[in-house]
């Protein structure tokens, strides 16, 4: 692994500073040629997320300040990113941060009931979506009926 990879991989996500862009699984490749030019490939998460521009600026800035002279960023759209690319570690960090990670979904019963999201505070499945959009387009806002705490759910793709 190149040192450029390490610099990029350690960058926090601008909206979810508890996870790095490598944790999220959006970092595809970082190559460095013998002239010191760095080429970074990232796959955008949700198309509605403005974070990609910020991530792109952040990583260029981080590489330039580390002494790299030429940095270019390529957005790789195919295959599309899904929440499956997020590491288990990232999901645990989100949970510890009070955000229900994608996949924290359980069935309400044996029959086909609507899916509910497990409360990151108390673990209850007795929750409801209070707003389709949370603090960002990537997340929806939920409320727990057991502990009455609101929480963000990172939507699964
Ligand atoms: Zn709760």
Description of the structure:
The protein has 157 residues and is of the alpha/beta class. The chain has four helices and nine strands. A hairpin with a 4-residue loop joins strand 1 (27-32) and strand 2 (37-42). The longest helix has 15 residues, at 51-65. The structure holds zinc ion. Zinc ion is lined by residues 119, 121-122, 124, 144, 146-147, 149. The site of zinc ion has 8 residues, from loops.
List keywords for this structure.
157 residues, three-stranded mixed sheet, 22% helix, binds zinc ion
Q: In CATH terms, what is the architecture of the largest domain?
A: 2-Layer Sandwich
Please name the fourth-level CATH homologous superfamily of the largest domain: Fe-S cluster assembly (FSCA)
Gross morphology is elongated
CATH class descriptor of the largest domain = Alpha Beta
Helix content percent band: 10-25%
The Cα radius of gyration reads 18 Å
Strand order of the largest sheet: 4-9-8-7
Poorly predicted parts: 106-113
- CATH topology term of the largest domain: GMP Synthetase, Chain A, domain 3
Strand content: 25-35%
> Termini separation (Å)?
29 Å
Mean pLDDT: 84
Number of strands: 9
Number of helices: 4
Largest sheet: 4 strands, mixed
Q: Which structural category fits the helices and strands?
A: alpha/beta
* Number of domain units: 2
Quick summary of this structure?
The chain has 157 residues and is of the alpha/beta class.
């Amino acid at each position: 692994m190149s040192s450029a990879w390490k610099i990029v991989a350690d960058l926090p996500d601008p909206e979810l500073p508890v996870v790095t862009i490598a944790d999220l699984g959006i970092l595809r490749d970082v190559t460095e040629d013998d002239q010191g030019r760095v080429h970074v490939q990232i796959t955008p998460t949700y198309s509605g997320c403005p974070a990609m521009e910020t991530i792109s600026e952040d990583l260029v800035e981080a590489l330039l300040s580390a002494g790299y002279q030429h940095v270019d960023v390529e957005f790789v759209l195919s295959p599309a990113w899904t929440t499956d690319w997020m590491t288990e570690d990232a999901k645990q960090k989100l949970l510890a941060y009070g955000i229900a990670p994608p996949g924290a979904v359980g069935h309400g019963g044996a029959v086909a009931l609507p899916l509910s999201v497990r409360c990151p505070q108390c673990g209850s499945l007795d929750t409801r979506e209070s707003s389709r959009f949370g603090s960002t387009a990537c997340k929806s806002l939920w409320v727990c009926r057991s502990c009455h705490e609101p929480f963000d759910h990172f939507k699964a793709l």
